[in-house]
Write a structure and sequence with these properties.
heterodimer, A: mainly alpha, MetI-like fold, 2 domains, disordered N terminus, B: mainly alpha, 12 helices, globular, disordered C terminus
Chain lengths: 305, 278
């Protein structure tokens, strides 16, 4: 029997046929294998197989065959560059809008809300429990041509008399902003709430102005939260196609709409796979850069908490 | 020390925050309101008077009940599988040291950072390659895949906050690993498991994108709403969405009540047995 088994002997009474050391290496494996197999078979392999599928040629009726058609990447990028740029632009604008709306809210919740803090937190989380699709359809109702909000904006001249809100870029960006606002607020709140407020007091005691203290103390300490919030908003936003579908027209279609219709409607699988593989690579690059800049541990901590 | 300027700034901050919360709730208000709309014809876009008839007949639309039941079943099955797998993975990540722990943590985290459209498309491509017919089973596979990470993260946070010494004490007193798990770890983990289950259920029942790719002929509640959106969503959908929200709010209040009660009980015990309270 091994030394470690000897030392730990009083603990291990059951499972006599295995030494403790063996058990201690086998047990975590046994715990991990089912879950990991699930993720490997239904996440990792599918993601990689996108590359394999993208290089095939053929058509849905006769089937596809592997032809190592690398040209598909240049072709689909040039054909759908408009939707790609639009995705970046919409997701970027929505992320900035989420930050502008969300940062003061998170700051308020962390430092000023007092006994209302938990109520605010609940109110930020609660929309998650109504169906996202139903909420987006509700935005159709709100922004439709004859709604009171459209009419009110027409009256004050923010929308031209013959203009409309629904089926515009504005509607799609507003929808994305709405859908992903909680993803921005929660990590911001978490990082602000964990902050040591006495540092700000120390700074102001040492004659820093409120603005300087905010800029030099609060913002840097909220850094990981800001990073996490931006990533958690931008990454899902860039792949979104629900808002463009329900609140826009084909003039507002994003890359997600293209992937969806290429896979499910046109059944041009190689193009769809190429586009989704490109998106995955872009997202991984963004995450890698972010992790490089602020560290994997801090990033995942801020994203999760 | 507070100058009028500070008070003005705090006031503005409060107003802005209230505005942000109102923004979050505008569509929810519309959903609830239009579940009472006495709409004529297909569309439910303009207010035409108050009625309770949709609430009296929430499944009065062809296919809605079937879709809703499918979603509930899918979410329940997903939750059971994902929570069992997730608890095991979290236990291995927190309570054991082994090679490949870092890589495992990364693999668990990655699906959460992948855009849903990529998750859905990749899985569909894989199912097509394998020649699997898409339906309820592929939906369960897909939902477990993207909820597993949330379960692991929730449980892991709870495990890391737990006192290892209690488990060690049990083992020192002769309990084997299985008994310790059953009598100590899992009961202490119960609130985390409850939270993870609720989260898992909520994410699954709300999923549209991945289901859109992998449902085949199966229709879930979000897929039904999306399909109906082109011809006008029936008010019964608003009724069900409102009812689900009410149910969650009710659950939260029950949970809050439990927490308050156990906190009170703990306080009482601390008062009567101060030595043990330490």
């Amino acid at each position: 029997m091994s030394e470690s088994g000897e030392a730990a002997a009083p603990r291990g009474q059951a499972g006599g046929w295995l030494t403790l050391r063996r058990r201690n290496t086998l047990l975590p494996l046994a715990l991990v294998i089912p879950g990991m197999l699930w993720l490997i078979i239904f996440y990792a392999i599918p993601i990689i197989s996108q590359l394999w599928i993208s290089l095939q040629t053929g058509n849905p009726d006769d089937g596809f065959a592997q032809t190592w058609n690398w040209a598909i990447y240049a072709d689909s990028i040039s054909e759908y560059s408009e939707q790609m740029l639009r995705s970046l632009q919409y997701a970027g604008t929505a992320t900035i809008a989420c930050f502008i709306i969300g940062f003061p809210l998170a700051y308020f919740m962390a430092f000023k809300a007092g006994r209302w803090r938990n109520l605010f937190l609940l109110l930020v989380i609660l929309p998650f429990f109504t169906s996202l699709i139903v909420r987006t359809v509700a935005w159709q109702t709100i922004l439709t041509d004859d709604s009171w909000i459209t009419n009110a904006l027409k009256t004050v001249g923010l929308v031209p008399q013959d203009g409309r809100l629904l089926a515009t870029s504005f509607a799609v960006i507003a929808g994305i902003t709405y859908n992903f606002l909680p993803f921005m607020v929660l990590p911001l709140y978490a990082s602000l709430e964990r902050m040591d407020r006495t540092l700000v007091e120390a700074a102001t005691d040492l004659y820093a102005s409120r603005w300087t203290a905010f800029r030099k103390i609060t913002l840097p300490l909220a850094g990981p939260g800001i990073f996490a919030g931006v990533l958690l908003t931008f990454i899902p936003a860039i792949g979104d196609y629900i808002n463009a579908q329900l609140l826009g027209t084909s003039q507002q279609y994003m890359i997600g709409n293209v992937i969806q219709s290429q896979y499910l409607v046109v059944r041009e699988y190689p193009t769809a796979a190429a586009l989704s593989f490109i998106m995955m690579v872009v997202v991984l690059l963004i995450i890698a850069v972010a992790a490089r800049l602020i560290g994997t541990k801090r990033l995942s901590e801020a994203a999760v908490a | 020390m507070r100058t009028p300027l500070d008070r003005l700034r705090d006031g503005l901050l409060g107003v802005w925050s209230l505005g942000a919360v109102v923004f979050l709730f505008v569509p929810i208000f519309v959903i609830v309101l239009f579940s009472f709309n006495d709409n004529q014809g297909r569309f439910n876009f303009t207010w035409q008077g108050f009625t309770l008839r949709h609430w009296a007949d929430p499944f009065g639309v062809e296919g809605l009940q079937q879709a809703f039941v499918t979603s509930l079943g899918l979410a329940a099955l997903t939750t059971i599988i994902a929570v069992i797998l997730g608890v095991c993975v979290a236990l291995a990540l927190v309570r054991h040291k082994w090679r490949g722990r870092g890589a495992t943590g990364g693999l668990v985290f990655l699906p959460l950072a992948t855009p849903e459209v990529v998750l859905g498309a990749a899985l569909l491509g894989w199912f097509l390659t394998l020649g699997l017919i898409r339906g309820f089973v592929t939906l369960v596979i897909a939902h477990v895949m993207f909820t597993l990470g949330y379960v692991v993260i929730t449980i892991r946070a709870r495990l890391e906050g737990m006192d290892v010494h209690i488990e060690e004490a049990a083992m020192d007193l002769g309990a084997n690993q299985w008994t310790t798990l059953r009598k100590i770890t899992l009961p202490l983990l119960a609130p985390g498991i409850a939270a993870a289950s609720l989260l898992c259920f909520a994410i699954s029942i709300d999923d549209f994108v991945v289901s859109n790719f992998n449902a085949g002929q199966t229709v879930t509640f979000p897929l039904f709403v999306y399909g109906a959106a082109r011809q006008g969503v029936p008010p019964q959908v608003n009724v069900l969405a409102t009812a689900m929200l009410l149910f969650v709010v009710l659950l939260m209040f029950v949970n809050l009540g439990f927490q308050r009660r156990s906190a009170r009980r703990q306080n009482r015990e601390m008062e009567t047995t101060p030595a043990l309270g330490l």
